[in-house]
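Most newcomers find our protein records easier to grasp once they have seen one. A learned vocabulary of local backbone shapes supplies the integers on the structure line. Here is such a record, shown just as it appears in the course material:
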Amino acid sequence: MAFDWNILNGIQEIFRCDFLDVIMPKITSLGNAGMIWIIIGVCMLITKKYRKQGILVLVGLLLGLIIGNGIVKNLVARQRPCWQNPEFPLLISNPKDFSFPSGHTQSSVIAATIITMGNKKMGWVVIPLAVLIAFSRLYLYVHFPTDILGGAIMGITIGAITFIAGNKIAERISSKNKVQ
């Protein structure tokens, strides 16, 4: 636990400034309820070229919501740093759910994993966005580094499994339709 506090407080000492105090709440808001990723998934769904990827992004986000936010957060029931150190001045409203894993990070990494596995060039856009959203959670003092790490690991796992399984299911459906 000292490891988490040292990194979290180090981030505050090194990066805290007026500019980031304005920018980080905006960046983190992109990840609220996975909204930016849902919007991207829906936009992909609308286009014929990226429809399958859009479906996979939305399925992956739903799985992440169920597994990470619905099950793991409540089983681990880890308190957030801002709950343990309530004197710290928050720049966003105090979250009501538990800390581990970071849902913002998990949803960002799920979407970034699926999108990047489907199109490496898109990874150059979505991976930095996912990293910024994850970092914003540390900067804003609402997650520990291990919450971010846990969210990232779960995100990569759920994203990769969704991508691989989804593509296998799509191939089976496609081959059945060709036979008929």
Summary: The mean pLDDT is 95. The longest helix spans residues 145-179. The radius of gyration is 18 Å.
